[in-house]
């Protein structure tokens, strides 16, 4: 379409009624139509037009501009011309040298040269000569670029890829046998299925007989239907795209480019900035003068070769530290002064703590039996629900929140058993028959955690603290001024309360009893990042989530909107087994710990946790999806608002027959302290329910048990609940069964423990208000939800994006 009739040939009037609609809504009439009289010629590499030619007969002649040359005939005449023309003329005369050589010539003592010139050339001939558009032929030598065919092999999941370049298709069989031996030896696995197209290189008698002898199933796509082998075709397309991006001219360089793209040559790290005090050595040892730098000649860098004294400091540090290996035994460690000093300091600390007595070895008149010479070894640790409850109360009541750490905690425990230990290497200068009789616990003993906790518990009880009946790791003491609460997790201690004076006395008492370290306000606890602000306290696991993404190798993966795909039911026997389930178990275990601050992934993690025994590729794909969701929401965490109410409220829901394998239902419930979420659960029920009412009733019973426990815990902390706690449910029949405990044929088989909710309802511990399904917050713990529904319920869980700690 044009407004210039001369740009067309065979112009003829337009007799139609159509018009041209413009962008502003107006219309233009069509005056005439014709054929194109010119043609654009595009560059095959860049795709941009390089010339335009009018149509003359049946041809399109191209008129290209010719560069204007201005030759000179005399060396002296360059002084009469401007610098730009002179530099270009001499650049051409001297064979197109670089600017450094040309500057040296122009600034030399040639006849007529009176001035000094600074050159900046843009030579079209140099650009054309160095362009990749018209490459010259290379010397025909034996190298990688002589290969013209390639074969791509990769596994199903994960899709590791191997590329082999061939000279002819007859080499396919030999290459496949070598690849089969490589996989068998390096990965201790075998190839079960080979998927290829119907190419003749795969259909030879020799190839088919070899596959039959190895028990390999050969799956072939139909002729002229590459979409049946879409995974392999897409991989080939990806490799070709990479090749065309790096070298869009000739396919002769394809093997070298693909190899370079896969394994880039790494530069050797130079350790001079770390291991050497200086990068240049001077011969004189006399005191330097102030003009020392002018007398040190530094050799200039060569173009293309970086100086050995410069470089990345991080790489230099890595290179310097890589020379020092961590010793694996005493004999290796004793050869280094630093390790001998560290061992001596540890032995001095043990002797100062009177950890052992040196005695002659007693006679052993009995047979050692594993597990008989010690009793309880378990050390209680704080429940995470208790931790969240304490943080919610701190935010609500504006209590101070402090953290302390016990140095060498296990060395403080007192042993009840008589234990003899062989002296550690280096304790005595020569061999001896004496042994160490342990008086205190030591690292590595099975009794050490329990012994340390008993010692710590006794110390607190002597200071008038009492142990909570609802969490054995929680200690509290009430006074006329308020209350002080202490929470211990092995050797990490959190202290808070309303009595500031008693809180200070407690810290002093602990410092006198143990080797303590006061860490100040609580900011980091067991991988949980605690952020304080005037609006409240936020809790997240940003660093832990980032490490999890790195462990899964998904740093550059695209994030997803939901942790689990909608309408997908994972089955136990679906898909191929993982050859090594260790990574799957490691990732699932990390995700379980991440649910401490991320209730939005609880249901998805509960689903993948069912297949730890025999995980399959589909299960691993589901785990990776959860991690991709975490990657996009890594700064998200729980928020406990300031001035919050301390009344409990709970929500309960169930997905009837949600498990595709066992047809058991999925229970989901959550409990709020005011607006702060402190407890939740997503769990498969332990038996099959005959109806949705029964599954909802069982879920309500489990939520009721959590409510009773939380009410007792809050009562110990002086936050007693006088009113019944509302337990919201969306199943009217389940509510009626609880409120009206009559005998019924459909409920007589329900266990007695489930009916405890009736007793709680009659004692007005709970109430059962009905809530519509659209407002049921616990729905997020029972099934996968669409994006908008998932985001809505996540916001109601008080999950907010928080700034990440650096």
Automatic annotation (TrEMBL):
CDD domains: RNase_HI_RT_Ty1
Domain Integrase catalytic intervals: 107-287
Family annotation (SUPFAM superfamilies): DNA/RNA polymerases, Ribonuclease H-like
Gene3D superfamilies per record: Ribonuclease H-like superfamily/Ribonuclease H
Superkingdom per UniProt: Eukaryota
GO annotation, biological process: DNA integration
Pfam families: gag_pre-integrs, RVT_2
Cited InterPro entries: DNA/RNA_pol_sf, GAG-pre-integrase_dom, Integrase_cat-core, RNaseH-like_sf, RNaseH_sf, RVT_2
Molecular function GO terms recorded: nucleic acid binding
Name of the protein in question: Retrovirus-related Pol polyprotein from transposon RE1
